[in-house]
Design goal:
Helices cover 31% and strands 26% of the residues. It has nine helices and twelve strands. Helix 7 packs across helix 9. Strand 6, helix 5 and strand 7 form a beta-alpha-beta unit. GO terms for molecular function: ATP binding; ATP hydrolysis activity.
Length: 300
């Protein structure tokens, strides 16, 4: 499948600051991608390059097969973008604001009203934006990003200010777009939100791409241990897999380094009639993020 976004050997500096250093990756249609990294890691610079707001010093960026910084970038109306800090004309109503952006994208304003309803703003559509809370402005920003059902959707800290119910609706909308074949990229610090949702993760650090891949691939590359907690009935000799070798210890925690070792341990534990419960905890996105950043720092 052809990538909808290609970034190849990109370098970008702002005076003496090297914002990006040899970054390369591809984003494919029908996939939700997470872009994670601390402040100053280069995430926003990457998004600006994909939007065509700035040019790379070296390397190439292609979005929907074209250079987004070119004057005749025909795919611009197929891009959706939500910045971290949205700003709208406070004197306009929510409906007027969305109609303005609909005209910019050359879609009928009437097609925007269902989007207002989907993000929970239909009741406030005719109120001035100046009366909106931060969360409401964020929802309006999301609505404008969704206009025209974009093929590439770039979101910078999109769930800031959203309550849990709206956050769930937000991800449901993204799932629909992804299932429709859109490429979705979320730049966020909310790693716990993205862990079970991101199908591809890009980890940035000091302008470098420290690691990329699916969660399964990153776990395999990192070789971080998998934690297996086994609860068993009292009595009898301690099993061979018990870490402490103590028959009185009813809960054993075993660290294994591979899926093969995990499955071997699970088979042994499942065959023991004294085992009451088994809990498996794989390395989280937080764990992987810290690991790859530390590994890059050690290599520097």
């Amino acid at each position: 499948m052809t990538a909808s976004v290609k970034v190849a050997g990109v370098e970008k500096s702002f005076r003496s600051v090297r914002a990006l250093r040899g970054v390369s990756f591809e984003l494919r249609p029908g996939r939700l991608n997470a872009l994670v990294g601390h402040n100053g890691a280069g995430k926003t610079t990457l998004i600006k390059l994909m939007l065509g707001l700035i040019r790379a010093d070296r390397g190439a960026v292609a979005v929907l097969g074209e250079d987004p910084a070119a004057g005749e970038f025909s795919g611009r109306r197929q891009l959706g973008y939500l910045p971290e800090n949205v700003a709208f004309n406070a004197a306009l109503t929510g409906r007027e604001t969305l109609a303005f952006y609909a005209r910019l994208k050359q879609v009928k304003p009437a097609s925007a009203w269902p989007v207002l309803d989907r993000v929970g703003l239909s009741a406030a559509a005719d109120r001035r934006v100046g009366t909106y809370s931060k969360g409401m402005r964020q929802r309006l920003g999301l609505a404008q990003a969704l206009l025209g059902r974009p093929k590439v959707l770039l979101l910078d800290e999109p769930t800031t200010g959203l309550d849990p119910a709206l956050r769930q609706t937000f991800y449901e909308i993204l799932d629909e777009l992804r299932d429709d074949g859109a490429t979705v990229l979320i730049s966020s610090h909310a790693l716990n939100e993205l862990e079970d949702r991101a199908e591809h993760v890009l980890i940035m650090n000091r302008g470098l791409l420290a690691a990329q891949g699916t969660m399964e691939e990153l776990r395999e590359i990192s070789q971080l241990p998998i934690r297996v907690a086994i609860l068993r009935e009292p009595g009898g000799a301690p099993p061979a897999w018990a870490t402490g070798g103590d028959a009185a210890a009813l809960r054993d925690v075993v660290l294994v380094e591979s899926n093969a070792s995990k499955m071997h341990l699970l088979r042994l534990a499942a065959a023991d009639p004294r085992v009451r419960d088994i809990e498996v905890t794989a390395p989280t996105l937080d764990d992987l993020y810290a690991h790859f950043l530390q590994r890059q720092e050690d290599a520097a």
